[in-house]
Amino acid sequence: MTIGKEIRLKKILRDGKTIIVPIDHPIEGYFKELEDPRRVVEEIIRGGADGVLLRRGSLAKTYDLVAGRLAIVYRISGATFTSGDMGDQRLTSSVEEAVRYDADAIAYTVYVAHPKENDMYEIFSRLVEEAEYYGLPVIGEVLVWENAKVDAFEYLRIGVRTLGEEGAAIVKSGFPSDFSLYRDLVRYSIVPVIAAGGPKMDSPRKVLEFVKAVMDAGAVGTCIGRNVWQQESPSKMIRAMRRIVREGASVDEAMSELL
């Protein structure tokens, strides 16, 4: 591992833990909360998050806020909602552009059980090789294609391991609904795992219960978007999550931050 890569990872994994807030969702549909990315980024900073995951457009709108305050995880893949297949991930940027934008990592998503799964893995592996030259960590995200009729847990577990085997520095993973399976998923990974948040949950408490469960299972942090910036106070939610991620607080203790 190069010194540059180690420095960038330290900005993301502060003391081995991290809270990253993604705001890369607008190509996936309309989210009124993301109409003003500056307001959202200000909330993310106020809450004490470690990093933000975003695309080039939102970075251009918020770079003066982000610089020196948040680690930049630059989204390099995507598929539009209007394309009809969110699982068909394409390259939307390059390693060189991420370096020019002073990113601390790039993020690429693989949808397992998708007909083009192997194509996505091939692209991912090439990105890792190219990023290694620049000392740029790659965060590999693994999700299950929504149209697949498969055992989500087993496919996620294999996907997490595969991305680690192909050079991911960190794996961002979806999680099955059964909390008891979380530890088995994390244990199979050979690199640190952070939790994707998925669809909006029923209540703030449900979000914190999820964060507690994944941390207890061995995850090193979270990369949760909608369940942060769709809350009444995103900064308070981040502070509540920090209590769990960084202090090992209980859900009840973390809930006090939302008052």
Secondary-structure map:
Blueprint (H helix, E strand, L loop, with lengths): L2 H10 L5 E5 L14 H11 L3 E4 L1 H11 L4 E5 L1 E2 L11 E2 L3 H6 L4 E8 L4 H18 L3 E7 L7 H14 L4 E4 L8 H6 L5 E4 L7 H13 L4 E3 L2 H4 L4 H14 L3 H5 L4
Structural class per helix/strand content? alpha/beta
Helix content: 40-55%
Q: Stretches where pLDDT falls below 50 for ≥5 residues?
A: none
| Number of separate helices | 11
Average pLDDT level: 97
Element-by-element helix/strand order: HEHEHEEEHEHEHEHEHEHHH
Q: Radius of gyration, rounded?
A: 17 Å
Euclidean distance between termini CA atoms: 43 Å
Strands, total number? 10
Q: What is the molecular shape?
A: globular
Q: Approximately how much beta-strand content do the residues carry?
A: 15-25%
Q: If strands are numbered along the chain, what order do they take across the biggest sheet?
A: 1-2-3-6-7-8-9-10
| Sheet with the most strands, sense and barrel status | 8 strands, parallel, barrel
Walkthrough of the structure:
There is one protein chain. With 259 residues, this protein is of the alpha/beta class. The strands form two sheets. It has an eight-stranded parallel barrel, surrounded by six helices. Strands 4-5 form a two-stranded antiparallel ribbon. Helix 6 links the parallel strand 7 and strand 8. Helix 2 crosses helix 3, helix 2 runs parallel beside helix 10 and helix 8 runs parallel beside helix 10. The longest helix has 18 residues.
